[in-house]
Amino acid sequence: MDLVPIIDIRSPDSASLNALDAACSDHGFFLLEGHGLDDLIERTWQQTRRFFTGPDHVKESVRRTRDEPLGYFDRELTKRRRD
Prior knowledge:
- By secondary structure, the chain is an alpha+beta fold.
- Helices cover 40% and strands 12% of the residues.
- It contains three helices and four strands.
- The two termini are 29 Å apart.
């Protein structure tokens, strides 16, 4: 089984750019390291957890509707069970 390609872009060079190109072409996805965004990603996950564990009135304020197709939606079903 192929592993997910890990590309380090800390100091981009032709080898890392070729590896990125191959990962896009051969796998369609990859893991980037050395991008300098770890803190931003962690803060994003913190806010995500805060939103989904937060009060219902906050989630209702951004609920998806017929007129607004983007927004919070918690009625997804998989095998007739709520996700």
